[in-house]
Amino acid sequence: MAVIGWIGLGNMGGPMTANLVKAGHEVRGFDLNPAALDAAAAAGVKPVASIGEAVEGADVVFTMLPKGEHAQAVYLGEGGVLASAQTSTLLVDSSTIDIESARKLHEAAAGAGFRFVDAPVSGGISGAAAGTLTFMIGGEAGAVADASRYIEPMAGNIIPTGAATTGQAAKICNNMMLFINLAATAEGAVLAERLGLDKKVFWDIASVSSGDSWALRTWYPVAGIVPTAAANNNFAPTFTAELANKDINLAMSAGRETDTPLEIASHVQQLFQRLIDDGLGAKDCSAIVKLVDGTVDELR
Predict the structure, then answer these.
(1) Which of 163, 187, 210 delimits the end of a domain?
(2) So which residues are the catalytic ones?
(3) What is the DSSP letter of 89?
(4) How many contiguous H segments (helices) and E segments (strands) does the chain have?
(5) In terms of residue numbers, what domain contains 234?
(6) What is the pLDDT along the chain (300 residues), one digit of tens a residue?
(7) CATH of the domain at 183
(8) Beta strand pairing call for 115-118 and 46-47
């Protein structure tokens, strides 16, 4: 079994490391949040006090961090991964970050003699816990193949995407589509109810018809329909509006860089920004339904 260094033990990293422990790997975990370290330790992860301790002698290092700036600090900063790990260690970044940051990490890792892949995931907290995440892996083919073997206990799907940064490209495009689907689901749900349709009857129809989507089946923003929906818990976060706004802004940035008009995505980004401006950025992203039905004040 492998020795795995893991940096970032939050809502995704915590359950992902638990699945690696279950598979028999030794996992050393680091996070700035003591509560996250404690939760990971309860699942069998060995908590450590620094990046250096996490990566020392590791076969592979995974990072799962909020933004590109955090990933760059962890890899490139003083006492960071590149300064502390052995060059034989495979580096896997599963954060969702901007293309430019991913490119910088690939270039810096290669310049320092490391193999590095960008391997963001889709499937959310529930997929992380169940070990059914989809990994999108960009990088040199041999490194991707080696990373895939370590990833298996956490994944339902492992998909090589091509050259460096293409994993991030796939994730950015996928999440943009997810949030557009979520916004459409919210509008359809509210309109159906106001037209007199029973909310469950409408969901039963849409889920087997052309209005179906992952957002409809997993995040349906009406309470009492889908067990995994945040709507059942007053929109306690499974994926916050702040994170959704961050991810869709990554798509907007990529659109500008490639001269791609993203008019629908732009509108959905404005919805998430409205939630944040209303002080609801820590609520679940599916709370955009409250902007549709006019009851956003109930969440304050």
Answers:
(1) 163
(2) 171
(3) S
(4) 14, 9
(5) 169-299
(6) 899 999 999 999 999 999 999 999 999 999 999 999 999 999 999 999 999 999 999 999 999 999 999 999 999 999 999 999 999 999 999 999 999 999 999 999 999 999 999 999 998 888 999 999 999 999 999 999 999 999 999 999 999 999 999 999 999 999 999 999 999 999 999 999 999 999 999 999 999 999 999 999 999 999 999 999 999 999 999 899 999 999 999 999 999 999 999 999 999 999 999 999 999 999 999 999 999 999 999 998
(7) 1.10.1040.10
(8) unpaired
CA dihedral 175, 123, 288, 281 (to 10 degrees): -90
Q: How many domains would you assign to the chain?
A: 2
- Two tokens at 285? 């992203």
Q: Are residues 144 and 175 in the same domain?
A: no
Count of beta carbons in the 10 Å neighbourhood of residue 50: 12
Tell me the C-alpha distance between 157 and 139, whole Å: 17
